[in-house]
From TrEMBL:
Name of the protein: Putative gluconeogenesis factor
Cytoplasm keyword on record: yes
Record's GO cellular component terms: cytoplasm
Assigned keywords, A-Z: Cytoplasm
UniProt function note: Required for morphogenesis under gluconeogenic growth conditions.
Stored HAMAP family: Gluconeogen_factor (MF_00973)
Lineage: Bacteria, Bacillati, Bacillota, Bacilli, Lactobacillales
Record family assignment: Belongs to the gluconeogenesis factor family.
MF GO annotations: LPPG:FO 2-phospho-L-lactate transferase activity
Biological processes per GO annotation: regulation of cell shape
Xref: Gene3D superfamilies: CofD-like domains
Pfam family, one: CofD
Length: 347
């Protein structure tokens, strides 16, 4: 009977919600999709740089860039169609310079449907995505940072430029109102998940903008899902300079006014000296330092491994290794209960 119960639970698709933005999110989503998880992506809408920033200013659109990359990562359409969707116009193309076709399509669909939520659902069907994609909110948000010296700056793309220590961040609507609502189905997805994954991604500008939406914050505090944080490998210019892995968790918990991360994944692989192309990857500084005693104060379980992937003179998380660890956790969650208690560290 016990073996039958184990087999039945092991064969059920784990419900995994991944929250964030930037380049790390689609990589993890693609890996989870390949492992046949029931995946939901909740994507930040506070980006104001590049093509996404131009479109949100020109047509009052929700920034589409992170949404575009997530749709592609979960899509079953042929590679050629993905390449077309991702194609970015050259700098000499005047008004279209820097815009990707996918960004334009998402913005156009949002205008046709009257909102970004329905636009994403229609595009999800067209692109045959395996999973669910929801914006964190159904309107563009403004990210604000308050620095340790008391000064404040608005705009996601402006924060790092100041090179100041950040005290905290918060989000508003574009008119300054703090009455920010989560998009449809976001809260229910978090509450019904087996696992909620944060990161990898920029701490202050990719992860926290989602958590600063009150309904999302409340749902993460209430969920019985195991909440997993994938700690960044490198410190980031103007955001996490001189941070240890424990400092990342401390910031998350301080913003939410309670310890809510159950499990943290930490890379212990060493980045070779002078390996990174500092011109191409100019936002990354040095490898995040380890503070295992600090980590154990912040999370029930610390899982450390060589999660490092070195390619193109850049530093990335090894998708297969990270996803393998997430699936091990998800199996324990399904068998022992979603918010299982443990003090076991694999370091």
């Amino acid at each position: 009977m016990m073996n039958e119960k184990l087999t039945r639970k092991k064969n059920r698709k784990p419900k995994i919600v991944v929250i964030g933005g930037g380049t790390g999110l689609p990589v993890i989503l693609a890996g989870l999709r390949a492992k046949n998880a029931d995946v939901t992506a909740i994507v930040t809408v506070a980006d104001d740089g590049g093509s996404s920033g131009d479109l949100r200013r020109q047509v009052n659109a929700v920034p589409p860039g992170d949404i575009r990359n997530v749709l592609v990562s979960l899509s079953d359409i042929p590679e050629m169609q993905k390449e077309i969707f991702q194609y970015r116009f050259a700098v000499e193309d005047q008004s279209l310079a820097g815009h990707s076709i996918g960004n334009l399509i998402i913005s156009a669909m949002a205008e046709m449907k009257g909102n970004i939520y329905e636009a994403i659902q229609v595009l999800g069907k067209m692109m045959m995505i395996d999973g669910h994609v929801y914006p964190a909110a159904e309107e563009p948000l403004e990210l604000h940072a308050v620095f340790k010296d008391g000064t404040q700056v608005s705009g996601e793309s402006s924060i790092a430029k100041h090179r100041k220590m950040i005290d905290h961040v918060f989000v508003t609507k574009l008119d300054g109102s703090k009455d920010v609502k989560a998009a449809r189905k976001v809260v229910s997805a978090i509450l019904n998940a087996d696992m909620v994954v944060l990161g990898p991604g920029s701490l202050y500008t990719s992860i926290l903008p989602n958590l600063m939406i009150p309904e999302i914050s409340d749902a993460i505090k209430k969920t019985q899902a195991n909440v997993v944080y994938i700690c960044n490998i490198m410190t980031q210019l103007g955001e996490t300079e001189n941070f240890s892995d424990a400092n990342h968790l401390e910031v998350l918990h301080r913003h939410m006014n309670q310890k809510f991360v159950d499990t943290v994944l930490v890379n212990i692989g060493q980045v070779p000296e002078n390996y990174i192309d500092t011109e191409k990857y100019d936002e990354y500084l040095v490898q995040v330092e380890h503070d295992f005693n600090g980590l154990k104060k912040e999370a029930s379980m610390v899982i450390s491994n060589d999660f490092l992937e070195l390619r193109d003179n850049g530093v990335f998380h090894d998708k297969e290794k990270v996803v393998e660890e997430l699936f091990k956790i998800s199996f324990d969650v399904q068998y022992y209960g979603r918010k299982f208690e443990t003090n076991i560290d694999t370091i």
